[in-house]
Each structure stands twice: as structure tokens, then as C-alpha cells.
DNA sequence: TTATTGTCTTTCGTCTACAGTCTACGGCGC
DNA sequence: GCGCCGTAGACTGTAGACGAAAGACAATAA
């Protein structure tokens, strides 16, 4: 046992910057999701490296990872291009998301206790507040946090991993039209929490499926609107 | 228009080896799935590089990719270790697999035409033949091909991508006990084909779910057996 | 005028070298 | 004899350099 008397939580953990490739990965993902790097754009390794102040190597490794996760397309001997989402792909992604989220809701209903439900209600309240304040970015972030919390309550790490990636890409496609579905979304969240609190797996599954299906429909309607 | 008179299909396409990192990736994945590299083993970059006759760089990139796909764990400043599957993780993986495969079966039932059904029956017949000949490796490969074909018929690329990765890892865990579930598995496949041919989405979903659940149960029974 | 070909620039793919960090082992003090 | 500290080795993380392939453009010939 340590006898230094240092308060354990207060130790600064000797903040080490962590692998450079990860920070480059985060930075690039941020640039892509914020549309600073537009779909179809050619990403030149040396440019990115110079811009970020690192060498090409970490940039390469970050691009590899972004490639396997579907954010960029890596054409051999030609380089990386920001992935261009198609209508078909967006639809398929939303289909998969519905699947994963619905299962997560079921598992959450099966496993969640009152602390978990309380956390969900807390997030929901904040989300409603953000919508009321017309804070679109905040509402989107809280929406993500809400769904992530349900994933956590589901207690399936593999499922959470997949859903995390799928959700992030869905959000990429969807953010531009998120405003439309502000309020109604949180009403549906309330119903979902109730189902989870009741430990009603069936109802939680159905509600989550309808919830994500509404999102999909709103996405498609954007096209024509 | 080309006026050389070359038969278009016969051009050998000048087989180029493709990026080195991909071949290293394939090689390592093969070594892992065949247990030549055992779970928990420390993978030293320079060793692998020397053994494969390439430099460290392509090896690094392959390891990165294997890391994001869950095959190896990349501990910072320490290197790569072959992932050690836990009971819990295997169970979660099987849960997700059930989800994805069931949805694929539903979509296949919704979209498949007679050529697709014929292809499935072809694969099924070969699989039964392999089981009869006690060809375990062949049966496992055909089983994978059968499920992959259903994925293809489902026509959802995103779903196929995820299921491909999940299935491959499930197979890694499961292969050692695959012998037990030889024959019964293909009987269930037959029923599944019938449901798809009838375009009965409901029945196809249920059958596939039961099918993969049987696999899961057989996996768990192995522990005690 | 059009198609072809040769050259040239750009960028990627790979290799080699160096610095930082973690682990293991041996010596020293208690 | 036991535990701690210092040192050495090994491996990874990062940087920089070289060779090769792909695309663009201009010059030339039909």
C-alpha cells in the first residue's frame, strides 16, 4: 500500500499525451464530421502531416483506421478520399442502427436498475432543456449521450462497439437535418425510459424501433422537402 | 474503342500483388485463426517483419487494423498481443451474431429470387456432402459460405460488413467444437431455405434466430462437457 | 483536328535510422 | 535473507529519405 498519504483521486496521472496516431485520428474525425473536410476530398498525407505538425507516419496510421471504419476510402497508390455517402448506404446504415438500438433497449430493460433509470431521466431532462433553448449542437450531443447510456446499461460491450461506430456515422449524415426532429424525439425518449423502468423488454424494443424508424423517415423526407 | 482484337475477358489483368500491408494482414489473420499464434502471445514487430520478409512498416499497419477489428490488443509502448477471448465476450458476440443473421434472413426472404434460392440449395447440398465425408474444415467453410450467401441476398452492404467480422470471430472461438453440431445444422439450413423461397420473412427470422441460438447453446455446453 | 505518345510532376509505398519508454536483472544497503 | 535502487537491454513510437506508380499535359504525327 502506498504510504505517501496522497489523495488517490487527485494524482494528476502524469498526463502523457498518448500515442500520436490516436490524436491524429481524433483530429481528422473531427474535421470530417464537422464538414471541414468535405466528402470526396483528396487527403494528401504530407499536407495533413504539415498542417498537424507531425510526420507522415502517424497520419498514415490514422487514415488506415479511418478506412476500416468507413470514413475514408483508401484507393491503392492514389491515397485517401473522404467517403461520399450515398442514399442507399445511409438507408442501410439506418436499418442496422434500428436493429442494434432496439436490441440494446431490450437488454437495458432486462438489466437496468434504478440508478440507471435515474441517469437516463437526468439526460432526458437536460436534452429537453437544450431543445427549449434552441441549442441544436447541445441537443445532438445529449441525444448521443442518451443512446450511449442505454448501450452501457445493456451491458454488451461488443454491441456497444458496433453501435458506437454506426451511430457516429448516422449522426454524420443526419446532423444537417437534426433540427426538424427536436422535440418529438425527447417525448419518445420518455416513453422508452418508462418501459425500461418497468423492465418491459417487449415494449422497450418496440419503442426504440419506432423511435429510430421515425428518425429514418425524417431523413428521407428531408430529400423532398 | 480498342481495335486490337483482344478478347476482353481473357486479358489476365496483370495480377499485381496489391498493397503489402493487406497481404501481411491476411497472413497474420490466417496465423491467428489457425492458432499458429496463440491467444496472449506477444507479437514482436521486428520478428514478424523478418519472418515475412518485409520491413516493420507494413507489419505495423496490419497490426493496427487487426487491433481495430478486435483480433489483437495493442498496449501502448509495449506492443501487440493476440486477443484472449473471454467467456463473456464470446457470449456477447454470439448475441450480436444472432441479431445480424436473423435480420439478414428476413431481408433475404424479402428480396431473394429463384436464382438466389438455387444457389443456397447448391451450397446446402455440398455442405451435407462434406459432413457425410467427415470433412470438418470443408463443412465449416461451406457453412460460412452459406451464411455469406444469405448476407449477399439480403442486399445490405453495411449489415454484411459487420456480420462478416462478427462471424469470423465467432468461428475462431467456435471451430474447436464445430464437429458436434455437424448434421443438425444443415437440416436447419434446409428449413431456412424453404422459408426464404416462400418469402416468409417472419418464419425466416425465427428459424435463423433459433439456428444461431442452437449454436450458442452448443458452445456453452462444450464448457461443461 | 484528333489521337497517340513521351515526359514530367505529384503522391504513395516501403525502408532505414534515432529517440523515448518499459521490463528485467543484478548489486547494494538494511 | 529481504527489499530497494540503478543499470542495461529490448521494443515501440516517430521522423526522414528513397524508389515507384499513377495522372496530367504538351508535343507530334496521321
UniProtKB/TrEMBL annotation, chains A, B:
Membrane-spanning parts: none
InterPro entries (UniProt xref): GntR_C, TF_FadR/GntR_C, Tscrpt_reg_HTH_GntR, WH-like_DNA-bd_sf, WH_DNA-bd_sf
Top-level division of the source organism's lineage: Bacteria
Pfam family, one: FCD
Species whose genome carries this gene: Streptomyces brasiliensis
Name assigned to this protein: Transcriptional regulator
Keywords per UniProt: DNA-binding, Transcription, Transcription regulation
GO MF annotation terms: DNA binding; DNA-binding transcription factor activity
PROSITE patterns named in the record: HTH_GNTR
Domain HTH gntR-type: 18-85
Amino acid at each position: 500500500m502506498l504510504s505517501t498519504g496522497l489523495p488517490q483521486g487527485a494524482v494528476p496521472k502524469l498526463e502523457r499525451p498518448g500515442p500520436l496516431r490516436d490524436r491524429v485520428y481524433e483530429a481528422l474525425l473531427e474535421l470530417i464530421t464537422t464538414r471541414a473536410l468535405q466528402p470526396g476530398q483528396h487527403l494528401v498525407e504530407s499536407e495533413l502531416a504539415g498542417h498537424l505538425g507531425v510526420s507522415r507516419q502517424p497520419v498514415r496510421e490514422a487514415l488506415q483506421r479511418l478506412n476500416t471504419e468507413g470514413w475514408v476510402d483508401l484507393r491503392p497508390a492514389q491515397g485517401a478520399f473522404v467517403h461520399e455517402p450515398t442514399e442507399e448506404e445511409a438507408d442501410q446504415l439506418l436499418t442496422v442502427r434500428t436493429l442494434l438500438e432496439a436490441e440494446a433497449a431490450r437488454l437495458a430493460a432486462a438489466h437496468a436498475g434504478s440508478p440507471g433509470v435515474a441517469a437516463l431521466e437526468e439526460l432526458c431532462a437536460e436534452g429537453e432543456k437544450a431543445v427549449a433553448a434552441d441549442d441544436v449542437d447541445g441537443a445532438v450531443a445529449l441525444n448521443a449521450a442518451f443512446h450511449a447510456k442505454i448501450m452501457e446499461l445493456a451491458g454488451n460491450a461488443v454491441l456497444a462497439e458496433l453501435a458506437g461506430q454506426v451511430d457516429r456515422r448516422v449522426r454524420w449524415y443526419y446532423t444537417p437535418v437534426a433540427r426538424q426532429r427536436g422535440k418529438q424525439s425527447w417525448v419518445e425518449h420518455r416513453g422508452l425510459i418508462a418501459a425500461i423502468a418497468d423492465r418491459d423488454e417487449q415494449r422497450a424494443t418496440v419503442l426504440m424501433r419506432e423511435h429510430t424508424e421515425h428518425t429514418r423517415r425524417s431523413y428521407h423526407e428531408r430529400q423532398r422537402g
